[in-house]
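Project standup — Tuesday

K.O.: blocked on the structure for the chain from last sprint. Re-posting the sequence here as requested.
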Amino acid sequence: MDTETPHVERDRSSRLPDSEDPSDTEGPEERSRFSWASRASSASRVSGISRAVRGLPGGRLTLGALLCLLALLLFSTFVAQPFEIPSGSMENGLRIGDRVLVNKLAYRFGAPPRRGDVVVFDGAGNFGNGDYVKRVVGVGGDHVVCCDKEGRLEVNGRPVDESSFLHPGDTPSDVPFDVVVPEGRIFVLGDHRADSSDSRDRLGAPGGGMVPVGDVIGRAEWIVWPAGHWTHLERPGAYARVPAADGAHG
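H.V.: unblocked you, prediction finished:
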């Protein structure tokens, strides 16, 4: 009888750890070296950033301040921006030295300026160098006349009661005018008509005193300074009954 126990050769692959899988073209040494290099590279970058931060005067505090300034710059460029009122042309609502916060997104998504809005616009090419703040009294297609028999501003045949925002003692205009606002432009006046250089003063100039909508920086939303004058600038109801320009022309 053959008493010799048959030799059974076990599958050697079952004894190999994962790191020694024959199908793996990279040995443990190569992978270890690669992992070490990757970790070392990441650590080096982190260390470099950390050294850069520590090298700033004030370290992390300065970095935080710089990030805040960057965020403020982006906000001011694309969302809202404060402007200082330089003259009395919008009194009594806006006084010299007031800071207004201008919504720069108000007209960026298809919504045009509306009658009664207080807007800030770039005056270059129409009014002169610099930014101006005025009230919109006429938009594209509007027929704006001053003054009617009772001395009132008239838009598309409808008289406008401006008493809620017109400077006390002022008339709607001491200069008569009768204009039709071209499409894509606005006709603007200051609330202090006796002390405002606005569309009336440029009726005979190129562009006829009309401001291109593309030059409008945004709508003044808030008076933010001084604190005692803090208020939201709302569109007056004076223009609510003015009919659409197309209806007036028809």
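K.O.: great, moving the ticket to review. The chain has three helices and twelve strands. Residues 81-249 form a domain with the Umud Fragment, subunit A fold (CATH 2.10.109.10).
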